[in-house]
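Hi everyone, sorry if this is the wrong subforum. Our group has a chain we'd like a structural model of before ordering constructs, and none of us has done structure prediction before. Sequence below.
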Amino acid sequence: MLPELNDDFTQLQQKLLPIWSAVREDDTFGHTSVIVPSLSVDQDELSKVQGASFYEERLLFALIRLRNPNARLIYVTSQPVHPDVVDYYLQLLVGVPAAHARRRLQMLSVYDDSTRALTEKVLERPRVLERLRGWIGEHGPAYLTCYNTTMLERRLALELEIPLNGVDPVLLDLGTKSGSRQTFAAAEVPHPAGYENLHSEQEVVDALSRLAEARPGIRRAVVKINEGFSGEGNGVFEFPPEKTDKESIRKNLHQLEWPSATENIGSFLRKYEQMGGIVEEMIETEEVRSPSVQMRIQPNGEAILVSSHEQVLGGKTGQVYLGCQFPAREEYRTMIQEQAKRIGDVLSQKGVIGRFGIDFLLTRSAGGAWESHALEINLRMGGTTPPFHALEFLTSGELNPDTGIYRAPTGQEKFYSATDNLKSPAYRGLLPEDLFDIIIRNKIHYQPDSGTGVLFYMIGALSQYGKLGMTCIGNTPEQASELFRRTVALLDRETETGSRDHGELEPLFDNPLSME
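Answer:
Right subforum, don't worry. Here is the predicted structure as tokens:
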């Protein structure tokens, strides 16, 4: 059901389409982009992600908008971004002097490292809001971009009197785990057997019992909180052997396995009762892949393909996003893109605009065909958003929506391996200037002449957490994987730790895109 059209926010959103149309038709159109990269998700779930406060740096790819000589950009963070990091991005803007771009960029920090959403911090500071309104008022039309949208972002848009480039928060239920399953059904897209809109331990037990009856011989299921983040809200359930009575199921429910060592059944069930959730079968076959498709619904309602990826998942339960390769494998890329388009059309009909991603599970048995199962919709930017926009940021190319292949303006195909989870205790203490010194001396930074190299992000997390993100761009899948492997080896060598097993990231070294 569409939101009411007579509220102030809906009226404000009417301004987005003419701005978007003008930007699309005239690459010199003067406007202001306000970036508030707030992770407005459940903060208990977010706290399980190491270095989460530095995820605000992941949207620095938005500086690409400064390629327009008449565009201005305001970027708000909880803590200041190191000036060397900002310079690092600005000097990569091909065709635009860094000094010219910097004059049109306003970095603003609220100097608040508390574990709350950035948008909340901005809203409670009247002078910050006043300052933002002043900057916005100086330079024509403006719009707001956030990592994800909630009622906080809705309120911020109203306070700043600019439209929000994202889904109206009243529609967010469409992107919960339960809403995803309902949308998949409406789009007639295959998805795992299961049950949604559950809110209590008893309902979970009942659903697991029904699932055991519907799927004789099932070994495991996944119990998901509706608003879990990056796989951290998923618990893996083991069915008791040869027992499907509810008491045995309840006993095993209290032995769920989670990605995070800090989770326990008490807190999990409390969150489940608050947020609701789903139960669905854990599909297990000889071969499993975890691709995703990224879509965008334009302000005019058109659902378009942005990208596809092979995701690398890990953690104790194999549910946590670790990295990705672009694009998804050719043998099923067209199939999942077509299914994503059907899902996008359903969401568009319900009034959704903005970016979103769809996670799939692809399975096959020996000699069989690949089967697709849609898992969830993320009505927000995600882990695969920064690397793809790093590619756009650096190459100014475009994606062919029919093939899913990206080509630079020269016609050269582009591929990458990426992660926001490269970490080691030995990397702790490295400052941004240390990282830049290492990559420049060893010539692994992105080279515009070859169109290959590495772009780093989340650099602020390096010193404290020994963690950062990177996108390794190559002209072939093999070149991208080799560059990833070489960069990891270089950082290990520079921190004098020798060769280490980076474990779950190995698929990004091994280049599964080339596997038959």
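For your construct planning: Residues 474 and 480 are 4 Å apart (CA to CA). DSSP finds 18 helices and 19 strands in the chain.
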